[in-house]
Amino acid sequence: MTHSQVQPISNSSPIDASTQRILGELTRIASDILGVHPSAIDVHTHFFEMGLESIHTLQLSGAVRKQFDINVSLRLLLENTPTIHDLAIYISKQRPLEESATESIPDVNESQRSTSSTVSQNGTSLLENFPKISTPNTAVKQLLAQQLQVMAKQLDLLRHNTLSKQQTLSPSEARTPVSTPLDIQQTTTSTSLPQENQNHSSNRTSPPKRAIAPQKETLSTRQQNHLEGLIERLSQLTQKSKQLTQIHRPCHANPRAVSGFNLAIKELVYPIYTQRAAGAKIWDIDDNEYIDMSMGFGALLFGHSPSFVVEAIQQQIQQGIQLGPQSRLAGNVAELICELTGQERVAFCNSGKDAIEGAIRIARAVTGRSKIAFFTGSFHGNLDDVLATGIPSGDGTPDSVPNAPGIPSYKADQAIVLDYGNPQSLNILKAHAHELAAVLVEPVQSERPGFQPKAFLHELRQWTESAGVVLIFDEVITGFRTHPGGVQALWNIRADLTTYAKAIGVGFPIGAVAGKAALMDALDGGFWNYGDASYPQTETTIFAGTYFKHPLVMAAAWAALNHLKHSGPLLQETLTRKTTQLATTLNTYFEQKQLPIQVVHFGSLFRFTHPSTLKGIDLLFYHLLEKGVYALENRRLFLSTSHTDEEIEQVIRAVKESVVELQEVEFLQPSSTTKYGYTAVNSSFTKFSKPDIEAPLIKIQSQGSKRPLFFIHSMGGTVLCYNQLVRSLGTDRPCYGLQALGLYGDREPYTRIEDMAAHYIETLRLAQPEGPYLLVSWSMGSFIAFEMAQQLQKQGHLIELLALLDNPAPISRSKPAEVESDFDVTALVGFARDIAGAAGYDLSTFHDRFNTLRKLPTAEKLNYFLDQLQAANLMPTDIDFHQFCLLFKLYKSNLRAYQNYLPQIIYPERLLLFQGKDSDEGAAYPDDLSWGWDQLSSESVEVVVVPGNHYTMLAKPQVQVLAEQLNSYLNQTN
């Protein structure tokens, strides 16, 4: 569900005891923020009307996250939970079942007796099956009691469901029930929460992933018929794979048989079983032929069954299995890896996961430290140490919690999970250098191959080297696939340790840890000679396995590495060129179709990116399967050296045909967005999708029967600056705000005033389909309002009021030369100045910060200003740095649009300009009272001077005069 689909909570929603306690806590928080007594807080008053400014909403969001471990976005606060009452109900509904259970346990001992009694009805008590443990304090007792109570309820529910089913099902049916209370949650669609609020977690561990009954997506009759037809055809085409899955389900616990479960396509959720493979093709047990784009999850660099590998395996198997003694090829394979990659020493294991585990153990053994850091979005295998998620905390360093059941919390305690590519992550690492053994990096994440932060990695390399922290590169996927020397050779970065797998095994289980001898010596003690007094001098750790260096695996790796050596970098360069051509061709097609789909790639790794809400995207991959293209599973796709140009063309053709078929029944609907944002306006009335039209609209005040008033956002993108003005205007007319696209990072922001205006016109017509219109705008918003008025008039609509607040015309906007030379610095100073000005802060010191910023490296500029704002109490100390970056990104886009806007025609109606008496915004027009607007209007501009400067004119007490003056003009309208 998208943000716009989350329904506001009614004031009439019932309040239980738990919610009442949350309400009291939120009231206390609000009173602390506003500096008033809790009795002065009305829990049903809109946050705007309560007096919460932008800084206050950030503080409220941070306080909610700290107190309740729930992330609440600015949009959620202003649109869906705009009162304390609504927010309390929302928080109550998001709290885990276990927390609610705690609220209803007045007596721990009584609850334990009740739990034991409940469970004993079904046989032996749960307590009798576990050893007795001591509970050090009441909190632990309560936790155990609540968990047992929840378990008892679940067991009772399961017991009743099972009994009812067994009364009606045959023994075989009862063994594999069609539906149980533990239906598996859909993985491709949201539940009733916005995506950003599904990461609720406690301070110590992620909540268990409770399976819930999924909801089927609403489909039209045509769509449902199309889906049923596709299911019927594929079920027939791959019937043996489906039958085999069902037959083995009772005894085979197979995660891949449930991967990507979606109730709507439940009948298609089963793996394809193969019987043979060669080159780029596979044949399933129904004898269907497919072009394989998954390529063994990236392991099959040369395709299936390359002849040079098959020959090596056949020769080796003829000599026996030989498990136990050392493979004669192990040393040769190690030398060849060192030759191709520039590594000093190599050790072997069975998988990428093993290699990661070995690298981490080496780093810990050598440094004597235990913590490791890695990054969100990376995958480092099925290892407890790296299966953790970072959640915000008060001190700026994310807390780490296990991201799946069964992983001990103490594993996450030894991990720091950070944003990849974020300069703030470097600062956090520096603060923890004393306890870090290693930083683990997937240099190009397979989850998002289009993100390639080379500069960040170079900075990370420099810091880890100086701090004595081991840098580990996970090149399990990119190693040998992108270059013989991997990403490190492409980007001229040398990690301390590197892990390899996949490509060197060509389908056989292998892993390798490679790196500097000083580190690798921890596995065998280091170099020594026979016949002298030398001996292993380095203290060693454990790294061993029965199947490490298996003779068959070594034979395959030896053949693969020799092939890579003889082919040279041309092999990877050719693959990259083919992948680029495939991506370019499909992206061109998607743009022509106005589809929000893009193929992103790095080397020969690629994937389709798209909004999670794109209806029918899952079906695209099943259509491809029907057309002989295998791209299921995790949808990380790869080209191999076996893929011919004809086969690649066949894949492209299958994608295009599938898109056409899906669009015929209104799946994969066109979007008005492109990768650059919204398309430029070429017509008088651009058609946007409904969610895009709704996105900018904020209802500030719903009371009143007069014609509505529309307020357009300023440079910061929000409409919070109009808070006190709206309250001062009274309640006789509705007031709406138009906020910027990209405010929440869900869309790319606009970079042209014309495009903003065209979009906002469609948005305001949701609230008022026909004119005359009343527009009010402050600062940069004046340009948008002016352009909106021009476009609305061209469309035949009347503008009854165009009020511009304290902004000169877009004619003479000369900037100092130094400002033009560093746009980021200019934007940062303006960004901070606007925040400070809105809070009534002394602005005289901000010009001094300009020279300081110019001297800082790019990566440190944002951190510097965030520190400055926090030191001045203008930003919460626990603000999410990612959110801060999103706000600044939007500010930069708006600033660029502001600087580049030049009106094309003269405005033919009356224009009002409200100027702050102490404002210096019109300094470029010392002899023009209209600040240049007379040159853009056919009628004389009416100038109204009100108390205050550019910022304080919108704050009390000055805003009262502005409101009175504005009301006097509004009363003149019809």
Relative helix content? 40-55%
What number of domains? 5
Strand content: 5-15%
Outline the biggest β-sheet: 7 strands, mixed
CATH superfamily of the largest domain: Type I PLP-dependent aspartate aminotransferase-like (Major domain)
The tally of helices reads: 33
Q: Can you give the mean pLDDT?
A: 80
Strand order within the widest beta sheet: 4-12-11-10-9-5-8
Helix/strand-derived class? alpha/beta
Oligomer: single chain
Shape: globular
Distance between the termini: 41 Å
Weakly predicted, low-confidence segments: 1-13, 97-215, 672-689, 813-821
Number of strands: 25
CATH class of the largest domain: Alpha Beta
Round the Cα radius of gyration to an integer and report it: 32 Å
CATH topology grouping of the largest domain: Aspartate Aminotransferase, domain 2
CATH architecture name of the largest domain: 3-Layer(aba) Sandwich
Cofactor: pyridoxal 5'-phosphate
Keywords: Isomerase, Phosphopantetheine, Phosphoprotein, Pyridoxal phosphate
Biased composition (Polar residues): 109-130, 164-206
EC number: 5.4.3.8
Task: Describe this protein's structure.
- This protein is α/β, with parallel strands linked by helices and 974 residues long.
- It has five domains: 3-95, ACP-like (Non-ribosomal Peptide Synthetase Peptidyl Carrier Protein, Chain A), CATH 1.10.1200.10; 224-297 and 571-664, Aspartate Aminotransferase, domain 1, CATH 3.90.1150; 328-563, 3-Layer(aba) Sandwich (Aspartate Aminotransferase, domain 2); 677-810 and 903-970, Alpha/Beta hydrolase fold, catalytic domain (Rossmann fold, 3-Layer(aba) Sandwich), CATH 3.40.50; 817-900, no CATH class.
- The chain contains 33 helices and 25 strands.
- The protein has a seven-stranded mixed beta sheet with strand order 4-12-11-10-9-5-8, with helices on both faces. Strands 19-21-20-22-23-24-25 form a seven-stranded mixed beta sheet, with helices on both faces. A four-stranded mixed beta sheet has the order 1-2-3-15.
- Helix 14 packs across helix 19, helix 21 (570-592) runs parallel beside helix 23 and helix 29 runs antiparallel to helix 30 (846-855).
- The two termini are 41 Å apart.
- Its cofactor is pyridoxal 5'-phosphate.
